[in-house]
Hints:
By secondary structure, the protein is α/β, with parallel strands linked by helices. The protein is 35% helix and 26% strand. It has 10 helices and 17 strands. Strand 11 and strand 12 form a beta hairpin. The longest helix has 20 residues. The radius of gyration is 20 Å and the shape is globular.
Amino acid sequence: MRTDHGLQVIRIALIGAGRIGTMHAGNIARRVPAMELAAVVDPRTDAAESLAAQYGARAADLDDVLKDPDIDAVAITSIAAVHSELVVRAAEAGKAVFCEKPASLELAEMDRAIEATEKAGVTFQVGFNRRFAADFAAAHDAIVRCEIGTPQLMRSVTRDPGRPGGLGHAANIKPWTIFRETLIHDFDTLLWLNPGAEPVEVYTRADALVAPQYKDSGLIDTAVVMLTFGNGAIATAEANFSALYGYDVRGEVFGSKGMVTAGRHASSPMELYGEHGISRQTLRSDEEMFVDAYVAELAQFADAIRTGATPPVTGHDARNALRIALAAMKSHEEHRPVQLHEFA
């Protein structure tokens, strides 16, 4: 066992060399203590080789990685449709698993992934990064300490950056993305910020307002989902794919004794006072807003592997958020409130 400053070095293989995979690769190789990027897997051989070369790793195929006894874990950053299958294969090979959200697109496949990791006894963590952002974590801690009393009204917002010309890549967005891949973050955040409370009902209003020409192909680019919790709290989660002013992620919990908020727009505290008024530079991507959170989630994943502790975001957490996403989809299709017990 190799160590670094007294910590067991976790050798990790990255599966998926796209945008998120590229970001995680840099963090694994350079920013997470005692974690080493050992290999990069991607069906696009050139992409795997290029990314691996940047960090002294090797490009490899999946079978070789899963058979390699020197690789401790995998980070799954591929397309969402194959996440659950990769989780199962990695678990069966005895590898710890970090999987980007969503860990699955269907409950049955999510259950299969959870069962595989539990049967193998391997660490399984899902990448809900907001839990690791300092402001969201502080809000959660304040709620746990009952500093705002009982949550009554909750809100979570995700507005992806847009462009003046509209949603240029709309044709590439798969149906239901806004629920299962975007709002899934908000659903997890609302569950986490209302600890111990169970969601009981979901009601959705959604449409294609940014790129209406793609509505018939299944694109939904604007959505508001209302959740009712068993403790009485009423929550809204909203998403849109075209915030021209930048990347906008916020959370708010109003309770019987006060309120907490999290999220920010500005990329720095600097304000420019000029002839056109006062302006600030805004954040333009998740990588900017959650740079430290992305590092922290991987560091805690590595710690869970070393200690055998339960990771901070489990497969069951991912399943709970997925239930809400599927209920939101059904509510949109059937134009009615959906009870969560319909998704056991």
